[in-house]
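User: quick one, fold this
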Amino acid sequence: MLEDQTDQLKPLPAVIGNFLVLDPRRVEFRIRGFDLAEKSHEERLESIGKTFLRGYNLILSVRSLAAFEQAMAEEPALLRGFFVEGGAMGSALVDSIPFRRPMLGKFRERFEARYPLLVNAGTGLAMSKLSWREKAIVGALDPFYRWMAYDGMGYHNVYFQQEKTLNRPKRKLEGYASRAYDQGVGRGIWFVSGADIGKAAALAGSMAADRQADIWSGIGLASCYAGPADDNVFLDGYRLAGPNGEWFAQGIALACSARISDQSMPETIRAAIKTLWGMEPEALAALVEELRQSNAAGTRSDRPRYEAWRHCIADVFVQGITERTRGDGKEIFSSQDAVAQDIDKQSV
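Assistant:
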């Protein structure tokens, strides 16, 4: 039987591969200097980082995408997306080495349909290290999802350069790339804050006001996809986000769609999504996909179709929220005055 040549990969020479391999210890909280978290939170976030690095390290030496996928299948369902994200970063990095057969294109063909956010975000993590190849990398990505590469860049910079990214002037990027970058900053904030929604809110609140909507979107995405989170985290996040609450909810909706797509929805997140959005995760994911298709098919000159999609999701949340009440007739969500008080407390 002939081998499928499109599945075959050429491993890096050992001397180069060994140089690029990353030590799993570099994602441990004590090494990164992240805020100490509840032990269960710390273990979850470290397991995500280590799974990501397993995917990254494997793609540097694996001989076929089938072997990579087999290794991915051995990971817990909750973590497989991060394994793919690591593989995407490694593939983009390998492609930057001269005289190599392109790998990222093959990787995208294999995994992007199931993991569109993770594949494009993982590519962006590599882009943080390959600034001279930014245009070439982004130009080869899906035109709709390519903004997730800048999201990945923002995430990478917070995760690996926390002090520099959060406390110094923002990296200069052109146009919407700058906003997508901040969405990744929000995802990174969720990790460096130890999955503590109060600490994440305080960090978000310390950033410039015009960046906070995108940052809260990233916090929402990470709290839902990476977790751990429950009803209280989602409701508290919405309250603490104040005027940016719909963007927190929008990020959660994107993560919900991703979890439904890769069939890895945890029960605690399922319940939390229903509480915040007022619908089952499957219904929300279907809505997100319907809006994606309608925006992907349209043409806009005022903003990228990806951003139009995000706006549509946020608008649906806003439209539905005023109609929702608890069984006792009280509003589920606090008033804006109460939100402001919560933010003030977090900032003290």
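User: anything notable?
Assistant: Residues 325-329, 334-348 have pLDDT under 50 and may be disordered.
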